[in-house]
């Protein structure tokens, strides 16, 4: 029976064979690698991946799709909201120190998923995700650009990221109203050991009024914490490199 895409799950199913092939080539799966796919849907990406891997773990929230996927002999299906999945436990179940994570993420909750994975990045080897092109532009944005913001800082602190493939709306069924792209995310081997909550809080404060100089926002936040360092507050939030935010969080931590 044909599956009807469900709006509440943000379902847009990849259907372009050329794009699917390009994504698989970008991921470059090898036999036996422990890999987890988020939102396999109708298995357009799942099938070529599992053919190369031999076995694949998939996370699917839609009950009907999960039941269909369970009929595939080479898939281990986790029927769950991905935001409730403990990837450390998944890695343990796969007897792997690190896992590869891929997926066509639901665009309506893509940012929460990215932050959920950020908290569990120690068990992740790499990530390849299909996302809204605008979100990926923000993820990889350089300082002093309109796209540079909290998402840029929080993810660039922990990952090296690359926009690897543009995907037009007509590659999906039904077509989304936005352009899409695929991002490669490689965790840094030795990131600065900052307090993640502190970094998140100070970056959020900094970008709360991005058109104002930081002395009006972050300056007050630092003053309340008796900061005595030399952080330049005569800048706007978007002008501050990731390394400067990280250095400030290291002071606070």
Q: In total, how many beta strands?
A: 9
Strand content: 15-25%
Mean pLDDT: 91
Q: Between the first and last Cα atoms, what is the distance in angstroms?
A: 55 Å
How large is the radius of gyration?
Answer: 20 Å
Q: Domains counted in the coordinates: how many?
A: 2
Shape: elongated
Total DSSP helices: 10
Helical fraction:
25-40%
Keywords:
Helicase, Ruva Protein, domain 3, Rossmann fold, single chain, 253 residues, 2 domains, disordered N terminus, alpha/beta, two-stranded antiparallel ribbon
Give structural notes.
With 253 residues, the protein is α/β, with parallel strands linked by helices. The protein folds into two domains: 7-187, Rossmann fold (3-Layer(aba) Sandwich); 196-252, rRNA adenine dimethylase, C-terminal domain (Helicase, Ruva Protein, domain 3, Orthogonal Bundle). It has helices at residues 17-27, 46-53, 63-70, 87-93, 110-118, 133-139, 150-156, 196-206, 218-224, 242-252; strands spanning 13-14, 35-38, 56-60, 75-79, 99-104, 124-132, 159-167, 172-173, 180-187. The longest helix has 11 residues, at 17-27. It is elongated and about 60 Å long.
In terms of topology, how is this protein built?
Elements: E1 13-14, H1 17-27, E2 35-38, H2 46-53, E3 56-60, H3 63-70, E4 75-79, H4 87-93, E5 99-104, H5 110-118, E6 124-132, H6 133-139, H7 150-156, E7 159-167, E8 172-173, E9 180-187, H8 196-206, H9 218-224, H10 242-252
Parallel strand pairs: 2-3, 2-5, 3-4, 5-6
Antiparallel strand pairs: 1-8, 6-9, 7-9
